Amino acid sequence: MISRTGKYICAFFLALALVALPSCVTAQSTTGKELAAPESLRLGIPIDCNLGQDCFVMLYPDRDPGPEAVDFGCGRQTYDTHKGTDFAIPDNRAMARGVPVIAAAPGTVLRVRDGVADRRIRNDADKTAVDNIECGNGLVIDHGGGWETQYCHMRNGSVAVTAGTEVETGTVLGMVGNSGLASFPHVHLSVRYQGQVVDPFVGPNAGPGCQVESHPIWADNLTYIPTGLIRAGFSREAPTMDTLWDGNFSDTAFTKDIPQLLFWIHAYGVLKGDIIKFRLTAPNGDVVAESEQPIANPSRSWMGYVGKRNTLERPIIPGTWSGEYQLVRNDRTIINVTRTIEIS
């Protein structure tokens, strides 16, 4: 919107319910069915990254036995019948650089698949194209004692093991990708005991729902973070969910002749009623764009931005510009981000 002073404020918020990402296996959930006492299995995370910094858990196993969906933390970062944990990376640029998928525990590779193209699922035609290969490039590891893990959506051509390969915790299996039924770059880890899906955040025999006694099988405690930042930055054109997942808009400087300056955010796990606050500040300290709005609908993946047009009356001046963003939930700030960019 252009005011009479020439300021331009564009606040655009896009809610996207992510495409469902089922595993390609038909194992059943453990909810409602008790298993024999399992032998001990301790899992490392299946991705070589700094969790919470350059990777994050995007989706958790669904613990609701009916048509609804709930994760182990009683949140909504899952979907109906989701049988695994999705360890995500920020975008396809990170995927191209290479983020290793690693074995979560020692074992023997049972079977592998490679050769499935990496592409983000956007519509029904894309879904149909991956019928029966929803897992994309991936593999299954037998850990003994009735335990198996499955790794899905790995990068095309990256699978580094074959059936029969003996692996240890941390053995590189391939690279994080976007193959199969995947709408963002990640590795989907499914855990099974005696053929039944196990939520590693609560362990086997936990029963359905989220308010259950938990015995996690992670080797290290994994903090439940249902809401967080994926990326933030500046652009000279309006971003979309596709361009953000593609890794566009990593600029650290612009010239003063750009048509507009936008400060954008890509986040996950926003909820209805969250308050989002944006501010764009010029080098002289003037606040040229500001917005505060409640979230109308929850979204597993969300983007928004504010910006300023470059006009003769109110030009984009050289210097250091600052963008600020906060997500506030129940009077608590969940995300607090500041970014700067140089205009010459």
Write the layout of secondary structure elements.
Elements lengths: L11 E5 L11 E2 L26 E4 L25 E4 L3 H6 L2 E3 L4 E7 L10 H6 L7 E8 L2 E8 L11 E2 L4 E4 L10 E8 L2 E2 L30 E8 L5 H6 L6 E2 L5 E11 L4 E7 L5 E8 L4 E11 L9 E11 L2 E12 L1
Parallel strand pairs: 2-12, 14-20
Antiparallel strand pairs: 1-18, 3-4, 4-11, 5-10, 6-7, 6-9, 7-8, 8-11, 11-12, 13-15, 15-18, 16-17, 16-19, 19-20
Descriptive report:
With 344 residues, the chain is mainly β. The chain folds into two domains: 167 residues, Glucose Permease (Domain IIA); 117 residues, Sandwich (Immunoglobulin-like). The protein has three helices and 20 strands. The strands form four sheets. Strands 2, 3, 4, 6, 7, 8, 9, 11 and 12 form a nine-stranded mixed beta sheet that branches. It has a five-stranded mixed beta sheet with strand order 14-20-19-16-17, with no helix packed on it. The chain is globular, with a radius of gyration of 22 Å. The two termini are 25 Å apart. The N terminus is likely disordered.
Share in β-strands: 35-45%
Which CATH architecture of the largest domain would you pick?
Distorted Sandwich
Helix content: under 10%
Shape by Cα distribution:
globular
CATH superfamily caption of the largest domain: Glucose Permease (Domain IIA)
List segments where confidence is low: pLDDT < 50 over at least 5 consecutive residues.
1-33
Largest sheet: 9 strands, mixed
